[in-house]
Amino acid sequence: MSPLHLPFTRSVHDRAAHRRTEPGLVEELLADPATRAVRVRGARVAVTDDGGRPRPVLAPADAVGAHDDGTWLFLGEHDGAGLLALALPDDGAAGAQSGVDDGSDGRWAGLRELTALDDLEQGIVVEAVALAQWHTAHARCPRCGAPTTAGQAGWTRVCAVEDRELYPRTDPAVIMAVVDDEDRILLAHGAAWPAGRYSTLAGFVEPGEGLEHAVRREVAEETGVVVGAGPDDVLYRGSQAWPFPASLMVGFRARAVRTDVRVDDDEITDARWFTRADLVEAAEAGDVRLPGAQSIARALIEEWYGEELPGAW
Ligand SMILES: [Zn+2]
Known about the structure:
Pfam families: NUDIX (PF00293), Zn_ribbon_NUD (PF09297). GO terms for molecular function: metal ion binding; NADH pyrophosphatase activity. This is NAD(+) diphosphatase. One of its GO terms (biological process) is NAD+ catabolic process. Strands 1, 2, 3, 4, 5, 6 and 7 form a 7-stranded mixed beta sheet that branches. Strands 11, 12, 13, 14, 15, 16 and 17 form a 7-stranded mixed beta sheet that branches. A 3-stranded antiparallel beta sheet has the order 8-9-10, with no helix packed on it. It is α+β, with helices and mostly antiparallel strands. It starts with about 25 loop residues before the first helix and ends in an 8-residue tail after the last helix. It contains 6 helices and 17 strands. The chain has 2 domains: about 15-135; about 170-305, Nucleoside Triphosphate Pyrophosphohydrolase, CATH 3.90.79. The radius of gyration is 22 Å and the shape is globular. Bound molecules: zinc ion. Zinc ion (ZN) binds near residues 144 and 164.
């Protein structure tokens, strides 16, 4: 199988990790007119509407202005210019509709709205949102509870009491297109979802667990279906950063060896096997709505189907 084409996985800038420990790096870049900066607030990015399509504002750093309540993050370099993000405090849903407060017509937009980004913009916003959310969640030291401050140009937080450095974490989750020997796909309806919404199964990897085990465990827990234990029964297909707030979705094709479905009625309230004909008919009729075009779930489903399917959340 050739690699999956996945949104939010393209990234062309250099993260230049070796520069993070340079003393005064952020101040130096702020003084450089070539530096470009993006602003983030929680999981939202400052955007302007470009012909109806929101695109991130990548402004000269001095145009972003002074923000005493923000944290500067070093994202890397591109074409000889430094890239920064200014992470502002997350003001929650109340601030979602507010302007960006810089005299422009900019506004705040979530990543899922950003469907028309080039590779540079995509890499920048995913890195900025993921890192900003890690800072928000680690304002205090998890061991002693003391306040922490940002270090290494935004790549650590430092406990003020223990002088201990904390590093950003990513939580791996598995997501899998489970297919049986009749070439049907298993799709499930989540308990919290509106009627008609179906997707692939997914779940977090548990401590001390490998990815293939997590695939078999999640499928069994949520649907009772048994995935084979052979070397070709769980195949890696691709991954996608999903910074809501810190997931890395690791995608697989999994082969079912026992297909009886028994849902847990907790996380999952329905799971069904679809033939290609079943699925396209249900999607065209609107009886089944599939995940959005930006998701690895849809990419896994369409890889199995062989082409694009109609309709989306
Ligand atoms: Zn501490």
